[in-house]
C-alpha cells in the first residue's frame, strides 16, 4: 500500500484529493495539511511514501516545506502541485528535491498514476516541463548556481544516456533511441544516479544543464 500525505491550503482541494486517492486499492491517505509547517510535522510523524505538496501555502510555502522534509528524510518523495504550467517556482521545487510536479487540473487517473510513478522512484517530468526548467535555469545568474559534479567518471554511453534523460525521455524511449533493452537503459540510469549522487531523474536533468552538457540551443539528438 502506498501512503500519501496531502498538503494544500484549500479545504475542498484536500477533500477532493483524499476521496480520489482513497478510492484506489493500492493508495491510502495518512494525513492532510493546510500549510507547509503542518506538512513538515505530519511527514515526520507519519512517514508517507509520497507527499502531494501545493507550491503556494500560508505560514510556510511548499518549497521550504519540501526542503525541510527532505533534509530530515532524504528518501521522502515529494510531488509538487501547481495551478500553472509555467509556475515560477518549478525550478526551485526541483532544486529543493521534489521528484516532479503535476497541474492541479490533471485528470484523476493521471494523478493516481503520477503518485505511483514517484513512489516507484522515478521523477515525473514531461518534455514540456523540462523546457520550462531549462528556460528558468538560463535566466538565473551564474553566481547563483551550485557547482555541479564533474562528468569525468561517466562512460561515453552514460553521458549519452544523461543527455537523453535531460531531454525528458523515459527509459523505454532511451532504449528505443539507443537500440538497447529497457532493462539496460534502466541500468544506465541507475549508474548515473549513483555516480552523480543524484536522488532521482529530476536532479540528473539539473546536472546536465549545470555542467553545460546540453543547453536550450543544443539541437535534439
Structural features, described:
- The chain is α/β, with parallel strands linked by helices.
- The protein folds into 2 domains: 123 residues, Response regulator (Rossmann fold, 3-Layer(aba) Sandwich); 63 residues, Orthogonal Bundle (Arc Repressor Mutant, subunit A), CATH 1.10.10.
- The chain has 10 helices and 5 strands.
- A 5-stranded parallel beta sheet has the order 2-1-3-4-5, sandwiched between helices.
- β1, α1 and β2 form a beta-alpha-beta unit.
- The longest helix has 15 residues.
- It is globular.
CATH first level of the largest domain: Alpha Beta
Class from secondary-structure proportions: alpha/beta
The end-to-end distance, rounded to whole angstroms, is 39 Å
Give the overall shape, derived from the CA principal axes.
Answer: globular
Oligomer: single chain
Amount of helix: 40-55%
The CATH architecture assignment of the largest domain turns out to be 3-Layer(aba) Sandwich
Stretches with pLDDT under 50, minimum 5 residues:
none
Q: Any idea what the radius of gyration is?
A: 17 Å
Number of domains: 2
Average of pLDDT: 82
Total of helices: 10
CATH superfamily of the largest domain: Response regulator
Largest β-sheet summary: 5 strands, parallel
